[in-house]
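Example 3.2
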Amino acid sequence: MMAGEERRPLLFDDNSAEDDAYSNSRKVVNQLYRNQGGYSNEYISGINVSASSSVADFVESDNIIAIFVVCFDTKAGNIVEWSAPADMKLEGIEFKAMPSGAHTLVKDFVYFKFNAYYGLACYETMAVDNVEERGARMKSVGILAASYTLLYRHMHFLEKQVKMQLNNPGNYEQLQLFWEDKKLTLESTDSVTNLKQLMRNSSPLVRPARELLSEFRITHPAGCFSQFLQFFGERIFTLWKFMLLRKRLLFFSPPPIGVVCYRVYCCCCLGSHRLPQFLGTEPKPHFFVNINDIDTLEAEACYIACTTEKIFETKPQLYDVYVDNQNLKTDVPVLKDLLKINSADRDKFVKMTDLRTSQLYAHSNDALSEEQLFVTYFTELNNRLFQTLFDISFTQDKQLSNEHMKSMGLDPQGDRTFLMELVEMHGIDVVLMVDNPCCPK
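Structure, written as tokens:
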């Protein structure tokens, strides 16, 4: 189980407190930038950031759409043995709640998308002296909800219930009581409809600072963002570029899959900003996917997902970027150039590492958690990038120079392809200047 400190939300539940928290986080990050010789005071103070208020003012409920128990049957394979409501069609969810390779683990958890809903399931196996079950009992208890941001609230309950189902198979009384308490009512159904409407009308890259980051819970012992940074290192800025370009990203890893679901979430956060001028299609987090999702993924223009099934690697038409543990690869010619780490990427990673170190040893009330630091860092980085492009597009000559690129934290040569793709995708009217490297000014 997580300690009390680990159970706190990424930011805050209260909207006004969250605004104050973001403002404070932004001040701390910017001050650290200045102390390290980063962006200038004039540039930082000139950025106009504003939050989207529609989603900000919405308070999401933690009601659920369904609850279910999946087991492994030695004759039939994965099956749904019980669910509520009884008339809800859950065909296929048995392979989401008990992913391929789960039998190799004692326990795990998984986030996933099922039709229009998001799910969380906790899996566990127990050795039994039973010939019919071939020495092992495998169960998974899960729920479905309209959004994934509050699923974490029910993880402890699911962990307890899967143990109960292993020790007392067929006893669904507590699950039924939980369903009666948390099922959607007419009021909550209206709330879900309102939320989905707000999400459709809101900027996807504005939302992460509030909707994406609102309460998705970290349960990895090392901390989600810390583990993400350590795992990918400088490559995190390659992922950052793919996120801003809204590419289809697929993470592969053998089980356990729970921690990889958190990599999907962290990747979503890389695109966060608070500038409403740039609207577009959201990179949808699908979390865990399997071969049954192939048709769904083929229809997506952009998404982020993870899988334990190696067969996806042989289907490049389903993704733009394939991430096999720490190795990133793409068959899209224009994206291959983006796989190279350049000097600006290294510099940003060093600065971010220094920021983390500064906060690690900070003993003030302004010290940020790793979650806040990570999100605020990328929110501010993206704010500066988009605000600079937006400002230049309103100048008379619309010329984007090498100095502009450096001010945005980009490499004038190494990031040229990335920037050309970005401005074309958003329809930003700027002209990239070509400086002759043989005749420097």
